[in-house]
Amino acid sequence: MEYDAVVIGGGAAGLSAATVLARARRRVAVVDAGEPRNAPAEHVHGFLSRDGMSPAQLLAVGRAEMIGYGGEVMQGRVLGIEKLGERRFVVHRSGRPDMATRGVIVATGLRDELPKILGLREQWGVGVLHCPYCHGYEVRDTPIAVLGGDNRPFTMHQASLVRQWSADVVFFPNRIVLDTEERTRLTARGIRVVDGDVTRIVMEDGRLCGVELADGQMVPRSTVFVGPRFVPHDDLLTDLGCDAGEDGWVATDPAGLTSVPGVWAAGNVVDSPAQLITAAGAGSKAAIALNHYLLAQAVAAVH
C-alpha cells in the first residue's frame, strides 16, 4: 500500500493532520491503536464548539469528517518506521501488511505516570484530575486537594493555580519537601498545607470523598489534582534517529518537523502541555508543512 502520508495516532492531533491532508487531495491513512489518553474523562472542555462532548464522541466525529474527505483509518499498532532512501518510508504494523509512504506524522501522545497511592488510578479522569484549564470550572467552589508527586515543578505551579477556581484548597506535599519561602507563598495564597504521607484516596459509593494520611487522618475533599510524570510515546521517533532536545523530548521545528526529513511529530508526543485544541492545531500545521514538502518534491522532479 503506497500513501502520500501515514499518520500514526488517531487523537486530536492525528485526525486534524489527516483531515488537512485529505482535503489537499493527498492519499493519507491514520493508524490508531485505540488507546486515547483522555478515555477516562467524561467530557471535553476548552475546545471551541465542542464543549461538553465526550472524548469518544469527539474522535468519532473527527474520524467521520476525515473519512468523508477520502482519508482512511486503520486500527492497529505500529511497530516501527523504516527509512528507505531519501524520500520513502515503510511503516511496519503488528499483524498487518506494511505501508509505504512519502511522509509520516507521529501523533502517539504520552502516558501519565501517577504516584502509587491506593485509589488514585481508579479515580483518574473522574475525581482525580491534572489540568485545571480542562476541568477546573466544573469543580469550582468545591473542596479541592492538590497532591504532591514526582513532577515537582508542575505540582508546585498547580497548587497555586488551582486556588483560582476555589477558596478551599488543601495542598498535600506528600513526598515533596517544601522550603520556608514556598510554604509562606502557599499560605499567603490562601492554601492550607497538610504534611504527612498520603496513603489512599477515600471513596464512597464510587465517588471521591477524601484524602487519607498515614497517621489515619482523613481530610474531606471532593476533587484531587495531581501532577503526573509525563512520558512521551516517542519510541517510533527515537528508533528512527530523531534528535532530542535538552529536556530529553524529541525536538521539532515550529511546524513539527523532526531532524529526519519527511517525519513530523504533533501533539503530546513532543509537547506535554498541549491540550486537545492545541494538539489539533499542531496536527494541522504539521500537515500543511508535509504537503508543502511533497509539493517541493513534485516541482523538483520536473526540472
Account of the 3D structure:
Helix content is 27%, strand content 27%. By secondary structure, it is of the alpha/beta class. The protein has 2 domains: 2-111 and 229-301, FAD/NAD(P)-binding domain (3-Layer(bba) Sandwich); 115-226, FAD/NAD(P)-binding domain, CATH 3.50.50.60. It has a 5-stranded parallel β-sheet, covered by helices on one side. A 5-stranded parallel β-sheet has the order 10-17-11-12-13, with helices on one face. Strand 14 (198-204) and strand 15 form a beta hairpin. The model has no long low-confidence stretch (mean pLDDT 95).
Task: Report on the biggest sheet.
Answer: 5 strands, parallel
* CATH architectural grouping of the largest domain: 3-Layer(bba) Sandwich
* CATH fold-level assignment of the largest domain: FAD/NAD(P)-binding domain
What's the total count of β strands? 19
Strand order of the largest sheet: 4-3-2-8-19
- Mean pLDDT level: 95
Spatial gap, N to C terminus: 28 Å
